[in-house]
Amino acid sequence: MAQQIKFGDKLLLKGETLILDNGTSDGVIKSNNGTVKIDGNLTISGTTTTVESETVTISDNQILLNSNFTGPNPTEDAGIEIERGDETNSHFLWQEASSRWTTGAHGLHSGSTISATTFSGNLTGDSAGMHLGGLDTQGATLISSGLSELADVRIWNGTINDTTIGALTPSTGVFTTITATTLIGDLDYSNLINVPTIVDHSIGTLSDVDTTTVAPTTGQTIIWNGTNFVPGESFSQADFNTAFTAKDTDDLSEGTTNLYYTDARVQAVSINNVVEDTTPQLGGNLDLNTYDLSTTDNVATLTTTSSTSSTSSTVVATTETNLSNVTVAFSEDIDLGNAVSSFTTLTSTEIDILGFKGESSLTYFGAASTTSNFVWRDVSDSAEQNDMVVVYAPTPDEYTFTLPHQTLWQIDSTDNDVYFKQYAYGEFSITSATALTTSNTQFRDSNGFYIDPDHVTITNTSGTNYKIVFWTHDVTAGDIIDVFVGPGQQNVVFGWGGITTTGGRLTLLDTSGNLIYKFPTADGSTNQVLETDGSGDLSWSTPTITLSTLKSVVAASSDFADFQSRIAAL
User: Fewer Cβ in 10 A, N or C end of the chain?
Assistant: First the structure.
């Protein structure tokens, strides 16, 4: 509580704060004569100061608004706002965003003179005379009625766009001098002064044009004869003939359809193209007309190429097996007493009928049996035997499988449950939008050798998915196989009657001209076979081991080791 002392008309309060205990009602400081005067500065710390008096008198000649702002980059607008009841309030405001004074949606009226370096926005007003250093209305009207009512407009280095100068129509405008680089719109020549009268007149009225001495005719133009412009032909037929005679084809530009004759172009479609071009192409069939094609090279290669699609895949291990669809009967050899072996003889057709997969060959049966890819299976004994000797007689196309007896079990004529069984070498899976068959698919191993599709089976597992299994071609897991869908490419070494040497022997060469095989000059005798010297030179020879000899050796052998030694001795 502040301490107070009263002396006459003065009330002294000790302390810095005067607190009115007025409850919820407004605190009031009131003077009996209606006037309260504060000597000194008055600071009001509240958020709102309300003055309810009708008249406010301020001695200061400047009022500072937004006084609490410090620092750079002001953003708050400041000014005076007028309360207008139900109408939109008016204000006179400084806009920080545009750095200018604005009256908002209400106009600014001056009863005297407004002086400014730059006006922004529309300028509207009536005046008996307006002096502008430069005026550009930017397509807007000069006054609200759309017409200029200025008695005198003087413009320096400015433009007036879309504004009529003069009275209501351009024709009533009177100008002493018009200087313009370009006039836009129609120009009425009727009121022009000191200009040649050319409206509705012939070109002959021009002082330097003479169309009366020699009257013009159809198709002529105006040419200069050294004195005047007169009717004539700028380039006559005679002129053309003279100029054309002086030219040759070197002076003419070539067209796009009718081309010049050149030696190179003629040779390109002549026999020279075949002789000189390193990759000539025929436009149709080549008819030799009983004549020959000859070359001094030692090999000629004919390459046929067809459009194919290709992909590569890696061989993986397989669990695919194949069991003959019926049993195979075996016979005892002639040495029944010793019972050293049993055998069965099958033709290629019989082997295929038994469900053999892949391509049957003596090479396959000899190699596969030692690796257990081809075995004979005794079902009752649950045993498989890959220890066998296979021979092939070309004339009857028969394979003889001879099985030496095993110590613990044997296959002989008493067995009626013997099957052959195949173990596939490997497999891989690929996808192809084209249906794959053995007739449209080729395989090539990493050595560049093509694998006959007869060695494989192609199975569609679902949709575009295919499984390739190798049955009689020796591949191992990890081998990369190229797959070609389509006829592919074939290189054919050709010749009439074969490519022959001086001795008349048919010779097969590779594409580099290296010898592959050189065949005998004539056919051999019955049962003879071709024998190579290891260098590709083939000759006929009579085999020392025949089927009957082999049977005799089998019959005389006491065991398989004895059989092998007897065969080696032949």
Answer: N
Sign of CA dihedral 431, 434, 435, 437: negative
Task: Give CA angle at 287 (266, 269), nearest 5°.
Answer: 10
In a domain, 389, yes or no: no
> For residue 441, is it within any domain?
yes
Instruction: Convert 129-141 into a string of H (helix), E (strand) and C (coil).
Output: CEECCCCCCCCCC
What is the band of 119 on the pLDDT scale with cuts at 50, 70, 90?
Answer: low
d(CA 534, CA 536) in angstroms, rounded, equals: 6
**Structural domain containing residue 454:** 304-317+426-493
Distance CA 161, CA 167 (A): 16
Residue 470 maps to a domain: yes
**β-pairing verdict for 130-131 and 153-154:** parallel
Which residues share a beta bridge with 421?
323, 375
**Total number of domains constituting the chain:** 1
Identify which of 377, 424, 366, 372 has the alpha carbon closest to the alpha carbon of residue 400: 366
Give the tens place of pLDDT for each residue, 499-532. Answer: 555 456 777 776 566 777 888 878 888 878 888 8
Q: By C-alpha distance, which of 419, 332, 331 is closest to 376?
A: 419
| Whether the predicted model's global pTM rises above the 0.70 cut | no
Q: In whole angstroms, what is the distance from residue 152 CA to residue 131 CA?
A: 8
At 385-439, the pLDDT tens digits run: 888 888 876 656 788 888 887 766 778 777 888 999 999 999 999 999 989 998 8
Helix (H) or strand (E) holding 547: helix 547-556
> What distance in Å separates the CA atoms of residue 450 and residue 442, rounded to the nearest whole number?
7
Which residue is associated with the tokens 């060469």? 509
Residues 273, 265 contacting (CB under 8 angstroms):
no
Among 163-167, 296-300, 446-450, the range scoring the smallest mean pLDDT is 163-167
Please write the tens of the pLDDT for every residue from 301-339.
Answer: 666 665 677 889 999 999 999 999 999 998 877 554 455
